[in-house]
């Protein structure tokens, strides 16, 4: 007996949900793609703009200026993206996900064109900073769009798909960027981002407009004081972590932003407890899954940032592989994530996240511990690649359930700020971990230094697994 086709209304709902998922994936994809595609263009940017001439070759003595330019082309984006994430999440909840997402996409397209046309280093860095501002509007809004549209197992599956497909940006970014730099030039690395932005905006025309009018149905109100304190509180420490890696953490213009930023964060918490309409209601942290999930996020993303930065360096600097082969070494992580993230997101929504957030980090840790086999002479294909595959599988088990856990019990009206909190925590945790890479490795990335990094990564993941096991409730107890 054949199954009758779905009712027209059901079919329309299904199509609408598919459009929401595709829009959310593409919007986040754009932000992640920009972060990965630009890295391969940095040498070409330094050669053309680092000399202070348009297209001129760098002259002697320009190496320092070229390096600083490369660092700030990346860091200007990270600084504004990280510092404005909370503000963007609050705006998403206040004015509506579709409205904020559309504004972010249009702004991202405009600032990408500005970066592509930048005639000198100062304007390029300024354009990158503006890109970070607009990118901050994309990630929390896109994830909030999913959580406000899907529920139950369907939400877990959708978040798994979002996790997997946005991860593809890290795979195709360097490959696409390298091809563009070698053929059309580095400026097209920024210009090409306009294509997925336009596609996303076209698809968004099929979404209904926002009917959201602020939290709890109240007219939209912006917590201006909270927004300023949050931006300063995140910008100061993020700037200090970025610049401290370059000039040292004892420099006054590193220490001062760090102190001011931490003071602003303390003032932010104080203000949010008293504000009539706080941008980040502290009651969010009374939700067990939200608090435990964010605590686990600290260890997981500190470990991932540290590990994923170190592996390509080791296989190039110690094993002598080319940049292209180094990219192939880390390719299994993205492929495995693409294959399994949706599956584990669905399973976690059905059976509860606790087993996945406990076992997943341990599998990821085992992948890194495998790399303790690394020894001179390095056999990358035996000592590193199997560990990368294990690491990728553990990541697939962990990330989608982690995201679902953080947002699972948060009211839809607050999902934007909840997503922003989790994203801000993950980015700052990664920056802190990377800032201490030199200390952990012992000042130089030798085989022994890599072993120390691997052990620290495994410990961080083990602690996160323990936090999840102890802090989360399984599905039977929760019900």
Give an overview in words.
The structure is a single chain. With 479 residues, this protein is an all-alpha fold. Helix content is 77%, strand content 0%.
Descriptive key words:
479 residues; mainly alpha
Portion of residues in beta strands equals under 5%
Radius of gyration: 22 Å
Low-confidence stretches: 1-8, 52-62
Cα distance, first to last residue?
36 Å
Largest sheet, strands/sense/barrel: none
Number of helices: 21
What structural class do the secondary elements suggest?
Answer: mainly alpha
* Helicity level: over 70%
Number of strands: 0
Mean pLDDT: 80
For this structure, the quaternary state is single chain
Quick structural summary:
By secondary structure, the chain is mainly alpha-helical.
């Amino acid at each position: 007996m054949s199954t009758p086709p779905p009712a027209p209304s059901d079919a329309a709902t299904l199509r609408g949900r598919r459009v929401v998922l595709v829009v959310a994936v593409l919007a986040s994809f754009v932000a992640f793609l920009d972060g990965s595609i630009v890295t391969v263009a940095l040498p070409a940017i330094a050669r053309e703009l680092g000399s202070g001439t348009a297209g001129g070759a760098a002259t002697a003595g320009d190496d320092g200026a070229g390096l600083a330019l490369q660092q700030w082309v990346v860091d200007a984006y990270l600084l504004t993206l990280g510092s404005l994430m909370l503000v963007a999440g609050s705006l998403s909840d206040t004015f509506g996900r579709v409205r904020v997402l559309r504004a972010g996409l249009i702004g991202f397209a405009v600032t990408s064109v500005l970066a592509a046309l930048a005639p000198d280093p100062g304007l390029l860095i300024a354009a990158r900073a503006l890109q970070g501002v607009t990118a901050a509007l994309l990630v929390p809004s896109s994830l909030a769009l999913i959580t406000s549209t899907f529920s139950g197992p369907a939400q877990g599956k959708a978040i798994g798909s979002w996790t997997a497909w946005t991860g593809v940006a890290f795979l195709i970014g360097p490959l696409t960027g390298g091809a563009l730099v070698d053929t059309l030039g580095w400026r097209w690395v920024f210009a090409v981002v306009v294509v997925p932005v336009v596609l996303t905006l076209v698809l968004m025309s099929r979404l209904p407009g926002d009917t959201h009018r602020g939290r709890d149905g109240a007219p939209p109100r912006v917590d201006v004081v909270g927004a300023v304190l949050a931006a300063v509180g995140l910008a100061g420490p993020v700037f200090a972590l970025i610049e401290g890696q370059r000039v040292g953490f004892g420099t006054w213009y590193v220490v001062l932003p760090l102190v001011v930023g931490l003071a602003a964060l303390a003032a932010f918490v104080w203000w949010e407890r008293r504000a009539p309409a706080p941008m980040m209601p502290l009651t969010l942290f009374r939700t067990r899954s939200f608090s435990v999930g964010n605590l686990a996020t600290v260890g997981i993303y500190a470990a991932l940032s540290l590990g994923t930065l170190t592996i390509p360096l080791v296989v190039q600097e110690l094993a002598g592989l080319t940049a292209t082969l180094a990219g192939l070494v880390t390719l299994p992580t993205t492929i495995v994530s693409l294959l399994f993230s949706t599956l584990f997101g669905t399973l976690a929504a059905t059976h509860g996240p606790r087993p996945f957030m406990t076992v997943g980090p341990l599998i990821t840790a085992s992948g890194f511990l495998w790399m303790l086999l690394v020894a001179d002479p390095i056999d990358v294909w035996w000592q590193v690649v199997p560990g990368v595959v294990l690491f990728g599988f553990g990541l697939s088990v962990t990330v989608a359930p982690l995201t679902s856990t953080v947002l699972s019990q948060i009211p839809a009206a607050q999902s934007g700020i909840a997503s922003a909190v989790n994203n801000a925590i993950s980015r700052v945790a990664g920056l802190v971990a990377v800032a201490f890479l030199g200390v952990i490795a012992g000042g130089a990335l030798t085989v022994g230094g890599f072993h120390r990094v691997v052990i620290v990564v495994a410990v961080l993941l083990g602690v996160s697994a323990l936090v999840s096991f102890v802090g989360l409730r399984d599905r039977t107890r929760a019900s």
